[in-house]
Amino acid sequence: MAIILLNDIEHYTSGTATIHKVVGTPQKITLWFKFANEKIIRENYRLSNQEEYAKFKEAVNAILGETPRQLDTDTLVGRTCYVEIEERPWKEGQNWTGVAKVLPVPSE
């Protein structure tokens, strides 16, 4: 059993994150983003889906500063980026949190 103070739960907010983990197949790449508050969110990119493939390429460009012709996904781990968060409709009026966009870290 666990006692949870629901008013104290931190929700995801946009901010700077580090690529915590990358898992991929030729069909799908999953990026795990870890924020300073230790919260982790993941985003799946189906490479066969044109829109998701374009989003993945934009994310890689934001993370690396370029879109390489060939990518070793392990080179993404430990890199920092800015992650925009969005609420997405789920079922029965509920939402879930996803990654809207990955951007370069803003300059100070």
Structure description:
Strands 3-2-1-4-5 form a five-stranded antiparallel beta sheet. The protein has one domain: OB fold (Dihydrolipoamide Acetyltransferase, E2P), CATH 2.40.50. It is mainly beta. The chain is globular, with a radius of gyration of 15 Å.
Key terms:
mainly beta; OB fold (Dihydrolipoamide Acetyltransferase, E2P); 108 residues; 5-stranded antiparallel sheet; 1 helix; 5 strands; globular
List the helices and strands and how they pair.
Layout: E1 15-24, E2 28-35, E3 40-46, H1 50-64, E4 80-89, E5 95-103
Antiparallel strand pairs: 1-2, 1-4, 2-3, 4-5
What is the CATH architecture annotation?
A: Beta Barrel
| Tally of alpha and pi helices | 1
Give me the count of strands.
5
Report on the biggest sheet.
5 strands, antiparallel
Distance between the termini: 44 Å
Basic shape = globular
Strand proportion, as a percent range, falls in 35-45%
Mean pLDDT: 89
Helix content: 10-25%
CATH class: Mainly Beta
How many domains? 1
Sequence of secondary-structure elements: EEEHEE
Structural class: mainly beta
Low-confidence stretches: none
Short structural description:
By secondary structure, the chain is mainly beta. The chain has one helix at about 50-65; strands spanning about 15-25, 30-35, 40-45, 80-90, 95-105.
